[in-house]
C-alpha cells in the first residue's frame, strides 16, 4: 500500500491510499480538520462522510488526468516512458496538479499520516459475518465488534483490499467509519469466533480419527448431521447424534 498526501500550502486536505498489485485499487480519506476543502471533498464532508470509497475515488483521479480517449495518447505514453495507460501513474507523474483546484500531492509513509486520521483508521475492518436476518457483524482491527442492520441485498458482499469498506456492488457499500459509528457493540470478538471454529467444527476425517469410526459409517449417517458445507460438521451435533452408536 502507498499513501499520497493531497494538500496545498496551508492544508492537508486528504490522503489517497492505493496499490497496483494485482490491480489498481484506491480510496480517499478526508482530513475532517482541514479548511477550505476543494469542492469534490466538501460534497462528502458536508454530509459528515470522510471516507470516499473506491468508486468515487476513481472518479476523482480520472477527472485529473489525461483521458484514455485523447487522440495522441500513444505519443504521450511514449514521451513519459509508459508502456500502458495507468491512471494512478498519470496522477502521480502530474503531482496531482489540476486546474480544478489548488491541490498537489506528496508521497508519504503511513506513519506520517496526521493523528486524527490515524486514530480513525484504528477502526479499519478485519473481517465480517453476514447474518440471515439482514444484519452484519463486523470485526475491527482494534479488537472491537459491532452489529448493524442493513438493507436487503442479494449480492454476496466482500471486504475491500484495504479493509475500509464492505462492498455489495459498485454503489451499495459501507465504509468502516459508518459501520463503526452506527453499529451496536457486539459481545463476540474475532478471536472468539476463530477459537470457536477451531474447537467446534470438524470434517469427516476429524470425526473418524477423533471417535475411531469408519468414513463409511460417517457417510451413511451424514444426512442426520447439521452440515455447514459438504464436509464440515458441528462437533456438539456429532457428539449428540453419535452418542451410544460407537
Overview of the molecule:
- The protein is of the alpha+beta class and 246 residues long.
- The chain has three domains: 2-119, no CATH class; 124-187, no CATH class; 191-242, Arc Repressor Mutant, subunit A (Orthogonal Bundle), CATH 1.10.10.
- It is 31% helix and 26% strand.
- It contains ten helices and 15 strands.
- The strands form four sheets. Strands 4-3-2-1-5 form a five-stranded antiparallel beta sheet. A four-stranded antiparallel beta sheet has the order 6-7-8-12, with helices on one face. Strands 9-10-11 form a three-stranded antiparallel beta sheet.
- The protein starts with a strand and ends with a helix.
- 24% of the residues are buried.
Brief account:
This protein is of the alpha+beta class.
Sum up the structure in keywords.
Arc Repressor Mutant, subunit A, 5-stranded antiparallel beta sheet
What fraction strand?
A: 25-35%
Mean pLDDT: 87
- Largest sheet, order of strands side by side? 4-3-2-1-5
Helices and strands: which structural class?
A: alpha+beta
Number of distinct helices:
10
- What global shape is seen? elongated
Q: Report the end-to-end length measured between terminal Cα atoms.
A: 54 Å
For the secondary structure, the number of strands is 15
Amino acid at each position: 500500500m502507498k499513501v499520497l498526501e493531497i494538500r496545498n500550502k496551508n492544508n492537508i486536505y486528504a490522503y489517497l491510499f492505493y496499490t497496483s498489485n494485482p490491480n489498481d485499487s484506491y480510496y480517499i480519506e478526508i482530513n475532517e480538520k482541514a479548511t477550505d476543502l476543494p469542492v469534490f471533498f466538501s460534497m462528502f464532508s458536508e454530509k459528515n462522510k470522510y471516507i470516499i470509497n473506491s468508486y468515487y475515488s476513481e472518479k476523482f483521479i480520472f477527472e485529473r488526468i489525461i483521458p484514455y480517449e485523447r487522440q495522441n495518447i500513444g505519443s504521450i505514453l511514449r514521451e513519459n516512458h509508459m508502456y500502458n495507460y495507468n491512471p494512478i501513474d498519470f496522477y502521480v507523474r502530474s503531482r496531482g496538479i489540476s486546474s480544478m483546484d489548488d491541490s498537489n500531492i506528496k508521497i508519504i509513509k503511513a506513519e506520517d499520516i496526521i493523528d486524527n486520521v490515524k486514530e480513525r483508521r484504528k477502526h479499519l475492518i478485519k473481517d465480517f459475518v453476514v447474518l440471515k436476518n439482514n444484519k452484519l457483524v463486523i470485526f475491527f482491527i482494534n479488537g472491537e465488534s459491532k452489529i448493524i442492520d442493513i438493507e436487503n441485498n442479494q449480492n454476496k458482499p466482500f471486504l475491500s483490499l484495504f479493509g475500509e469498506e464492505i462492498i455489495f456492488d459498485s454503489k451499495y457499500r459501507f465504509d468502516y467509519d459508518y459501520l463503526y459509528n452506527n453499529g451496536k457493540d457486539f459481545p463476540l470478538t474475532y478471536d472468539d469466533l476463530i477459537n470457536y471454529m477451531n474447537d467446534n467444527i470438524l470434517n469427516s476425517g476429524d470425526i473418524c480419527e477423533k471417535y475411531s469410526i469408519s468414513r463409511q459409517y460417517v457417510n451413511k449417517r451424514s444426512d442426520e448431521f447439521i452440515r455447514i458445507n459438504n464436509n464440515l460438521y458441528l462437533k456438539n451435533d456429532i457428539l449428540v447424534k453419535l452418542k451410544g452408536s460407537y
